[in-house]
Amino acid sequence: MTKIKNAACVCGIILSFFLIGCSSMKTLTLRIDNRQPLPPVSTGLFMAGVADTDITPPPGVAMAGYSAMASRASGFRGRLHARVIYLSSPDGQSIALVQTDLLSGSRLLHHRVAELIADKTDIPARGLMLAGTHTHSAPGNFFGSNFYNTFASSKKGFDPDLYTFLATRIAGAVEQAFAARRPARLATGSTILYDMTRNRSMEAFAANTDVNADATPREAVNPKMFMMRIDLLDDDGGFKPAGAFTSFSIHPTVVPYANELYTADVFGHIARELEFVQGKNNTPWPFVHAAVNGTHGDNSPAYEPGCQGYPEARRLGQAIGLKAIGLFDALADDLTDDVSIMAACREVDLYQQPTIDDTSLCSRPVVGNALTAGAEDGKTPILNWMPFFKEGCLTSRWIFTGSCQGHKRHIGGFFQPIVLHKQNFPHHLFFQAIRINDTMLCPLPFEITCQTGQRIGDMIQETDDSIKTPLVISCANGYFGYATTPEEYSRQHYEGGHTLYGPNTALFLAKHAALLATDLTAEPGDNLPDQWEFSLKAREYFPADCAPEDKRCQVSEPMPLKADPDEEAGWRFKWQDVAPARIDFHRPLVQIETSADGIDWQPLENEGRAVDDSGYDLAVRFCKNLKKRHMGLYEAVWFDPAIPAGHVCRFKVLPRQGQAILYSSVFPEHSSPEKTEE
Fold first, then answer.
1. Could you give phi then psi for residue 202, rounded to 5 degrees?
2. What is the pLDDT of residues 32-63, one digit of tens each?
3. pTM of the model
4. Phi, psi at residue 330, to the nearest 5°?
5. Number of helices followed by number of strands (H, E) in the chain
6. CB within 8 A of 138, min separation 6: which ones?
7. Helices 266-278 and 310-330, interaxial angle, to 10°?
8. 205 vs 185: CA distance, rounded Å
9. pLDDT tens for residues 540-580?
10. Measuring CA to CA, which residue among 611, 603, 606, 656 is closest to residue 636?
11. Residue 463 is inside which H or E element, if any?
12. What share of the chain is helix, strand, coil (3-state, %, to 5)?
């Protein structure tokens, strides 16, 4: 069965490149206004606010990142979040840093959120940053280009319902953070963390002229963890922790492509570990840890060989999260309310403005053979060992390299321009720079390799040496694939094959970033148009709505699961409930309760953390539609269960659409499930 699925994946990848123009999808035109926000107010105080919202969509949406190999989500294990850090300087310059558990930011989504919040906040479009963590287990089909709405996931087309859901939820969180603003203090700092990541593309990395060619895969990475800590003024007159904005460079591919559940992967653990610790404070606000990706393009997680999966994501994420906790605590003595904020942006149409100074991009984006074979930690079956596709010397073109795309072998050869129309590629690039004291955030809609990020940062500092920390953030405000150095590009590994606009991409980005650094010293403003228009091929994947015609009920009592090579130990419970369109996966749904006598029931906690579907070990899955009753069949699985000695437990399903609380049968009757011996 696995071989059949792998062959189908390969056929799907190849066919999708040549059938993009044969789709029956409808064309949808979206127009977004560039509205002016509320006028800035000079309070004389540094202000901040935080917010967190759940953006877990309903089941049925295809997940993005593993392309045709990806599954349509049937549920979630570890919810998807959008976390917001709002900051306003004493002179009224405001920004909102938004981290989302998505494959990437989206220019379309960014502009729509900016439009939605304009009437209720003072955040201009140039001050709104929308970054994705790059998890490969979150929905796709919300991008502003037909190319990535077609190829990022296993299902083609822009999903208008998903887009509306995400824009509404994210805009609401930004408005909450703005409304909750208080006098604040801020501190920034960094630490070094090795052994959590490794360079997955060492031949390409070693080709760089400015690196240690003898570095090991675990040394050839960006080990820097940067953090910005925010404390707010509490009602008692003291300042208390409220949030953190953290950057670390790691590819969230610990959970493999066979996964069918939404998850934030390793970043879910990085964010939640600090939130669990600081969330115990008795404050009027929730503690929010917005953890974004840095220059992760060739930095894979250092999971143990053959161990991709949820337990390994937890091990790595908690180890990185522990480092974040230590860094957060270390910043306590550096907090200050002397904070300056500046933001600048520009939007460049690469088809109209492909040149800056003497550096030009290719006039037409091209997909390389190496892209279709997959990355080292997400290889495409069959293609990954075929000559001229797999990474290695045959993937690079070493003769006839005089064209703009240089060493790249073109998938489909001369036929690619015919079937991959130029206008379907992303080509409107939103550049942004945000400066907070001596730190400059440089969000880019690319997956930046670690050495590309180093060169961009160096050029920023050469332009303005008062910027002590240039922070390049990947997958922000859009998605254009990868950006590699010219040397890395020449080797045509996966990253180079996915650098669409040719070997000058890194230098082009660096020069624009440096130019924006100089714009930060000017009067705040932007050169954005009054309106944007997007023409997208659309298809709906959200489940159809229908009114329930029955009551929720237990379908099967909780059953133990024994561990095997493909499954963790746990307990499984199935029940009937309202249809997927009404189950509201973005709201709390399932909890575990415990009792010593079977009469007095309490929410179960494990090391002070509630055991429910907001944590790591409770998955909720939609199994199938029950069409005759317009209901759905669901299951909840509690993995790695820790049942207190002498206690029993039960699943508690929270109300939905007029349906009352549902309790499962009590378990275990005799003993908790045991893991099989290895």
1. -65, -35
2. 999 999 999 899 999 999 999 999 999 999 99
3. 0.94
4. -70, -20
5. 13, 36
6. 63, 64, 65, 80, 101, 102, 103, 132, 262, 263, 264
7. 40
8. 40
9. 999 999 999 999 999 999 999 988 777 799 999 999 999 99
10. 611
11. helix 450-463
12. 25, 30, 45
